[in-house]
Amino acid sequence: MRFNSEDNNYMLFALQLSTQGDGRTWPNPSVGCVIVSPKDQNQKSHDIIVGTGFTGKNGTPHAEIAALSEAKDMASGSTLYVTLEPCCHYGKTSPCTKEIIKKGISRVVVAMVDPNPLVSGNGIRELKNKGIKVSIGCCEKEAISQNSGFVSRITRKKPEVSIKLAITNDNFISSSENKRLKITSKKADEYIHALRAKYDGIMIGSGTVENDDPRLNVRLRGYFDYSPVKFILSRRCEININSNLFKGRNDRPLYLITGKKVDETKLNKLRENNINILKVEDDPETGFLCLNDTLIKIGDIGINNLLIEPGAILLKHLMERNIPDDIYIFKSTKKIADSGVFIPEIHNLLEDQKTNYDLSYKREVFDCDLMYYKRDLRS
């Protein structure tokens, strides 16, 4: 279907609105909505935006409901632009389709069909059956990209996975002493925290916990509530009670991911301290926790977008299994020379050797170079 420039512009605005919910709407996708009336308050004929909305925290309210609430009576006879097909089933909220019909919307422009089997064309069909004109596919490519994590969880049963790496100017992520190595500057860290805020969950390995004692939250003014759910890979299911993660376990949900043979008494003590447990299968090839089963279990929780900040060992296993969908590498000006640990996976990426990833862009981020890689879809 062909769309005019006005349709495209309003949908692009809705897509911009949808990003405001990133990292806060899971298990729902972050959706944007714009309502355009053909008349203003004085009944003069020209298009005017009468309502906007995006998905709220934990998925409520839905974008359409927020926009309709703002539009009020001006919604009647208007066109509603939405980045994902309106829902038609009862969940945390009542169906958006019923409210759209009730408010007298005359046309609905949908960017993409909802892959969720509970909707998947049924919302569009319900609107059409009530005489509402429905146009599908406006800015569809952009909408699929925006909702790629949700699409992945629904269709692959796993979240979309991003990796974030910080490397020195001589291409190391750690020193041979296994001590905490501060690579990026305070300004670059702020950018990284803004990136972290866009994800539903964040995961690291037990080695990073021991060496770096991270907090895994978002430390930007006004954005603490955007901190992701924390996941720790720990085959022995251990956490230091003096660690930052243990101290901050009540701020955001904290999950320890462990094997199925860990003693239940040990697990119950952790649960009593408000630490959640995810049991996963072992990988028979490596003896480590199975990363595929880990991602499925995380997807079961409702996480759409997962950021992994791996150490050398976890990075190796992730790359060998072609798991990351995209990779962010922040390269600083710091050098550590002979005290660094050579990481073949990083070398291959930077030298464009033997990888399934293509460099999408490179840009300066304060005193760092950011290199962003996307997985080659042919791989």
UniProtKB/TrEMBL annotation:
UniProt cross-references to InterPro entries, sorted A to Z: APOBEC/CMP_deaminase_Zn-bd, CMP_dCMP_dom, Cytidine_deaminase-like, DHFR-like_dom_sf, Eubact_RibD, RibDG_C, Riboflavin_Biosynth_HTPR
Pfam (any one): RibD_C
Co-factor note (free text): Binds 1 zinc ion.
Cleavable signal peptide: none
Residue positions of the active site: 64 (proton donor)
NADP among keywords: yes
GO molecular-function term, one example from the UniProt record: 5-amino-6-(5-phosphoribosylamino)uracil reductase activity
E.C. code: 3.5.4.26, 1.1.1.193
Cofactor: Zn(2+)
Record domain CMP/dCMP-type deaminase: where: 5-126
Pathway in which the depicted protein is active: Cofactor biosynthesis; riboflavin biosynthesis; 5-amino-6-(D-ribitylamino)uracil from GTP: step 2/4; Cofactor biosynthesis; riboflavin biosynthesis; 5-amino-6-(D-ribitylamino)uracil from GTP: step 3/4
SUPFAM superfamilies the UniProt entry points to: Cytidine deaminase-like, Dihydrofolate reductase-like
Origin: domain of life: Bacteria
Keyword NADP on entry: yes
Chain sites annotated for binding substrate: 196, 216, 219
Chain positions recorded as NADP(+) binding sites: 166, 208, 212
Residues the entry annotates as binding Zn(2+): 62, 87, 96
Purpose: Converts 2,5-diamino-6-(ribosylamino)-4(3h)-pyrimidinone 5'-phosphate into 5-amino-6-(ribosylamino)-2,4(1h,3h)-pyrimidinedione 5'-phosphate.
Family: In the C-terminal section; belongs to the HTP reductase family.
Protein name per Swiss-Prot or TrEMBL: Riboflavin biosynthesis protein RibD
Organism, as annotated: PS1 clade bacterium
Protein's gene: ribD
